[in-house]
Structures are given as structure tokens and as C-alpha cells.
Amino acid sequence: MTVWRNIVRSETGPQLEQDFTIGRVLGKGAFGVVRLVIEKATGKLYACKSISKAKIISREDVDDVRREVEILNLVSPHRTVACLKQVYEDRSAVHIIMELCAGGELFERIVKKGTFTEADAARHFRTMVEMVAHLHFLGVMHRDIKPENFLLTDDTDAADLKACDFGLSDFFKKGQRFSTLIGSAYYVAPEVLRRNYGPECDIWSLGVVLYILLSGMPPFWGTDEKEIFTSILRGNLDFTTAPWPSISDPAKDLVRGILNFDTQQRATAQDILQHPWLAAQGVAPDKPLDNVVITRLRNFAGMTRLRKAAILAAASNLSHEEIHGLRELFKSFDQNGDGHITLDELREGLASQGALADSEVEQILRDTDVDGNGVIDYEEFVASTVNLALLEREEICVKAFQKLDKDGNGTLTEDEIAEAMGMAGRMSASEVKEMIQEYDSDGNGVIDYAEFLKMMHNSDPQLKRASDSLKRGVLAMHI
């Protein structure tokens, strides 16, 4: 009993049945069941993965569940991932609410459709590679990339493809090696079989998936795991048997570059995204990735100072599982381990994306450094990079408001807001009054909880005005 108690939460939270109506079973696995659920407040459909505590019998099992939740919190939201909505825990199970992908598995769709071109393969494969690039930048390796772990969002031809299972994923640091034999037989990399591997194993698995997408069969065969593993270690790739003679040379070149035994020479996710084959299939390779860290930093930089202070207060109330991934990411930026990210460390940490000019990195640091000490500390990093959806939950907003409401009278006064600004840069009395007016919708000179909640949930007023101005400018150009 004590092994699994409080797997993902340190205190009692809302119950699943309070917020969702439980629907039909979508699938079953070794540790639990996936069901359709309907959010009562919105009517939206989600998938609920319920992990039975009766099956969680060891400390390792508990750590696996907790790590999956930590990773989902870190990698969500992203267009290539079935994103995390909420996590519940009761006496019998841990319930993970995720984005519903109702279109089924990609390979099932291909079989049903009956036709599949290299262009189709390139479009879907690019999504898979972008997912891996997203994970690797955040210091996460998937370790179980296979077709079954990618689902389509709906039944249309325009459906998006999303990764849906992170149960075997783990965090990694630069240069770290792993020895656990893990993954699915056909897709496992040779270095995993040799028990000395890093995130490059995900690239190998992608190569196996691409080989299957193009030919309809895996590159390494066997009647059982032992034979499959032997075939992988031999590494003899077949490009002569049909349909390979009719497959384009650029496609075959990409497969060879990915299924390279030498992990130092193996293509990276960025190499794959720049390969001519993807470009030849009409998928532009020159657009920078919409990196989640850069996007979140930019969003945080654009907030008003009061909202930054509120976000800082809210982020301090997140659970270990919700911010553990960000803690690991912070460590990867903080190269000397002094608890601060300098301009050089931020520049180097974002360099792999190649998407920011030096001036923009400098501006992000200035705007993220809310206390003005010239560096980004851990609290500022978490507040600026966390998934804001986590901070919009009612219980988090209540705690954040209570932290700022020093006298507990249910409103934020000028003095309390001036004190809060200590977390986001000092302000004059006139600036404090102006800040209150920004959100004081009833004009009584203070910010009550309803106004605070609106600030937390809605787009920043300054950003909205800027957006409105931009729209007016665009319209004016066409009049």
C-alpha cells in the first residue's frame, strides 16, 4: 500500500468523476485501460489512460509512472504530441487525461486507404522527426518509437499525426549513456542491444519506421526476438528486393544515413529535416522549428510585469511532477551549475535551433530576468517556460492570489501590488496605479479575485492591443 501512495500528487485534489463523464473503453494494456472521457464544463472529448495501482507493485513501477507524468508535463503542448490535459489520482488508479486522437494508427489508415506515395510517407515521417527533435532539445529520449505509438487526430485525409505513448521515455544529459535493454524488437537500435546508448537510438528507430513506410516490411527480420536482434546486429540492409528498385534514390540515401551503425555518423533529427528527399516531396525544410522553449520564453517576455509576478507566484505552487522536466532542462542550460543562466549559457542552449539572432536572445534574457539581476534564475526559468495551462487551474490560481494578497481581504491593493512588483522589478507609485487600472474592470482601485483570474486566463492586454494594431495596419494596407 505504501509503495504507490501519492504517486503523482502530494495532496488530495479534485476527483476524475467531478470533472469528466467516463465513456467507452478505447484500449487496454498491461497496466490499465484507456477510455473516452467527456469534460463536463466544455463537452470536449479526451482520452483517459488509467494505470491500476494494483499493477504498480514496486518502487521502480512508481518511478516509471511518475516519470511519464513529468515528461508529459514537459513536452506538452506541441503539435506533434498528444498533449497532457490533467492528471488525477485516487485509491485505485492514476488517471492521465490526454488529447484524443480518434483517427487510429497510421498504418491502419494506410492499409484501409489502399494507396500511399513517397510524398505521403515524407509528410508523416517529417512529423515523427519533428517530434524527436522536440524531445531531444528538451533532454528527453523516447526509447520506444514504433508505428503503433503514432495516432491520427481524426478520420480525414488532413488529420495530424501525434505521438501518444511516453511510458518508456527518460531524461538524458549530454554525453550520458544508458544500459537498460528497452524498446520493441524490430525497432531497437544496435547500441541498445549492446547496452551502451544515448538519444541516437531514437533516430535508428525512426529509420526502421521509414524503411517500413517505403517498403511495407521491416529491414531486419526474425521468427523470434533472438533472430531479430541477430539480424539487427548484422545490419545487412536490402535495397534490391521489390519495391526498392522503384523507390527514389534520395529516399534510399536518407534511410542509409539514418540506419548507420556509427552513432557519431548517424543523421541527427536536424540533418533529416534538411535532407533533399523531404524537400523534394514538397515539405519545406528551411522554416525554423516552432521550438517550445523559444515560444514560451517569447510569450513570457511579452507579458505585463504584474502578470509576470502572478505567474511567478503560481509556478511556485506546481507539483514536483509538473516541473521536474523543467528542472532538468534548467540544468542543461546552467552549464556551470551555479543556479543561474547567463546570456552566454542561454545563447548556447538555444543555438541548436538556429532560430534566434543575438539581439533577440539578449532581449529574451532582459524580459525573462524579472528581478533585474542580469541572469535567469531557476524560479524565473520555470515561470517563463512552464505550460501556462498548468497555471490556469483553479487551485493554482487561488494559491497564487493568496500569496500576493498579504492581508487576506480578498483584493490586491496598491501596497500589495507594489510588493509583488519586487518579484518583477520595482515600480513607482504612478506605475502601480496604472498597472491596477489595466486589470481593474470595475474601477474600485483594487484587483479582486475575479479580475485576477481573468488576467491569468486571458491574453495580456498589451499583447492584445499590439495584435489589434497590427490587424488594423494590415487592413489599412488593403483599403
From TrEMBL:
One of its GO terms (molecular function) is protein serine/threonine kinase activity. The keyword Electron transport does not apply. Signal peptide: none annotated. SUPFAM superfamilies: EF-hand, Protein kinase-like (PK-like). ATP binds at K49. It holds the Pfam family EF-hand_7. Residues 20-278 form the Protein kinase domain. Keywords: ATP-binding, Calcium, Kinase, Nucleotide-binding, Repeat, Serine/threonine-protein kinase, Transferase. GO terms for cellular component: organelle. This is Calcium-dependent protein kinase. It comes from Chlorella vulgaris.
